[in-house]
Amino acid sequence: MSKQAFRSGTSIGANAFEAKNAQSRADFTCKMGIALKEATETGYWLDLLHEAGCLDDALFDSLDNDCNKIIAVLTKIIKATKLQA
Q: How many CB atoms lie under 10 A from the CB of residue 49?
């Protein structure tokens, strides 16, 4: 589970970074959408790791809070980009 969380967690940044060089607004939105999906998946893995006892409450709360902030930022970016179209 931790490897999956690592993969999805690092994929968020990779896709957001790649979006900087998008070929079009639609391509940018698509890449940011992938980053959002990866952030959501990361939240899932964090929940499982917490339930399995691999993350204590304090660490989980911190990571989950960060993950939710990233999801909120990505959601706003995608919505704003779609409104500009």
A: 18
